[in-house]
Amino acid sequence: MPKRSYLLLFPVLLLLAAFQPQKLQHPPIPREDPHTEKIAIVLTEQPVEEQHVKKELEKFKNTKLRHVFTQAINGYSVQGPASELKQLEETQAVLFVSEVHTYKVENAGHLQPKRYQSSSSFIDNFELIGTEAVHGLLDEKGNHLTGKGITVGVIDTGIDYEHQDLRRSYAGGHDLVDGDNDPMETNGFGFKNTLHGTHVAGVIAANGRMRGMAPEAKIVAYRALGPGGSGTTEQVLAAIDEAINDQVDILNLSLGNDVNGPDLPISLAINKAVDSGIVAVTSSGNSGPNRWTVGSPGTASKAISVGASTPPMQIPYIDSPGTMGKIRLELLQGSDNWRITQSEHLVFAGLGRKSDMTDVQGKLVLVERGTLTFTEKAKNALEAGAIGVMIYNNTNGTFFGNLEETMPIPVAAISKEAGLALKQQLKNKSMLIRIHLIEETDILADFSSRGPVTSTWEIKPDIVAPGVAINSTIPGGYLSLQGTSMAAPHIAGAAALIKQAHPDWTPAEIKAAIMNTAKDIKDHSEKSYRTFEQGAGRIQTEAAIETDSLVIPGSLQFGQFQLSDNLHRHSAKLTVKNTGSSRNSYAFSIPKMQKGIEWELPLSFSLKPGESKEVELAMKVTPELLDDKVKDGTLVLDDGTHPIRIPYLYVLEEPDYPRVMGFGFAPADTGNGYRYEVYLPGGADEFGIALFDPDHFRFLGFLDWGRELKKGMVTKELPLEKLPEDGVYLAKVYAKKAGRENMIETMLYIDKASFENRPRKR
């Protein structure tokens, strides 16, 4: 068989069967060079002054002060060799030293669009979540609820403040990347130009041809993410510092990383911003649909972390004889809308090269992901006369992608499983398939990151909002994007409307109003999503503003039950506040019976207008009767008018998650190497991809390795020059954490020669 054929049949073969560790012995991963230069955040017990820090750093010959933070955290940033940073962490006044991470925009795909004009609005999204109705309500001064008098800070890629729909909303800003007061989006950098912050700002407060959630709110832009939409911990912390100093009312951070941990400096800074009176809204991340994928700062306890759901949408599904039933198509950003509703012929066209596009005129084309970009595959199909393209994944599951420019034909993604099933049916022939358009609303987006938060076991996200196919402003025009980045500004805009209606409400009360009144959403089988997937549910803006009761906090975590405990009873406290104009009576509904769980709930009570009451409730557990180490559900408190849903969660022991999971290896979309992705639910003290001779189990070297990796998804592209010679390798993908090691054994096939003859972009 020619070498290239293996790439289609065998990009990754996961051998999850028995592993004989004595056959795969490898040396320790390489030690880090102590002279490696790093930038880090130093957290201290008390606020620090620049002169004092400089004096303390005199002990460290090669470590230099970069920035002192005055609002967001107690601490500063430094640059120096790894060995000195380790010594600095042992200094008495230092709590810990955290290496700077990269934060990036949180949209599920990034598109370099053609500039175009659009007269469409947010009306479908806003009608769904009740915003249009809210604009007809009045505040205590007789003004319509439009965000008037409220300032929203947007920490992002900057903003096109010259956009016709944002000129009236823009109220200044800061550039933490270039160090000036001009937060304009990155331009003049080709494919590293940005548009994300402008899109986010438009959802919140566009005020022109488009009108955002809170069109009369003021936007202060903080450019913390530079070319390509990424920035460092240091830049984001500096932006939070500025926002606290500027005393904004609401703060939106549609950015994040894949680290599921509550104690990163960004998360701590967000909590401090809330303590200063700011409502902080963050995106939960786009690493779903697995558990434990929510990333910082969406893990911040006091922030409102937002997941993404669908607005009313016409979703294409295909039926074909002998496959796996209906297959859902996920349109790539930049694709034309799917308008094909009759039966059409489908053909397989390999990797989507020009040479693969034979006999595709007037047909739908199925291609495999990898080697070429999505845009190259789509262009090749278009030029050959195809009417649509379906790209199936080359690692497990489906994906959410984007085109580098708009296409006049629909281009959709499907899962690897579905693609291989269709390919098997085709067998190099054309096949007739049926296409259906099915309306869907309030479906949780697959890309939306799920919780819980590791170590604190908190429910995140807190809430969900529309985050799929969201049309908004970009430099020079308008564009539809998707991601939790697009969901978060819906909540930031809603918070601005609530703040205008109730100027005396605290951030905790605004968060509670949003969560208490949310709508429980269900999946395709009409089963409610788990609390760590949807939080309290999908926002209902009008209900949040008009609520007569607040329950704080809006969700409960009962912590970790240990089998060794003598008393398996955990309690929690809630504050119930009557915000209405008449006396309200409150009573908890009796929870549905669950094996191994007993509840102690308060008796019914009543509150006068403006009165609050703290109540205590408790959960008693018989652990040996429980069958799931992550247990969640919803308590219901009735205020005489509306049921208030309060999601809860607890875990048994430490949830038995593997230290490593979800490894995939395939050609990168750019065609310049291979990419791998792997999920580390608890992080790793040590991680490695060790390569072996598959016949003799001889160690050949490390494909990649790392130490002290944080929790979450690791995705990395390995350029061709960093790869070993072509061939088949047996790989041991392993992670060690707290003395425990888990591994995945897999076969990897590397074929650099297949990349050599493809055309390159200039």
Automatic annotation (TrEMBL):
Pfam families: Inhibitor_I9, PA, Peptidase_S8. GO terms for biological process: proteolysis. One of its GO terms (molecular function) is peptidase activity. Residues 1-23 form the signal peptide. Residues 348-422 form the PA domain. The active site is at 156 (charge relay system), 196 (charge relay system), 485 (charge relay system). The keyword Membrane does not apply. InterPro entries: PA_dom_sf (IPR046450), PA_domain (IPR003137), Peptidase_S8/S53_dom (IPR000209), Peptidase_S8/S53_dom_sf (IPR036852), Peptidase_S8_Asp-AS (IPR023827), Peptidase_S8_His-AS (IPR022398), Peptidase_S8_Ser-AS (IPR023828), Peptidase_S8_subtilisin-like (IPR050131). Belongs to the peptidase S8 family. This is Minor extracellular serine protease Vpr. The lineage of its organism: Bacteria, Bacillati, Bacillota, Bacilli, Bacillales.
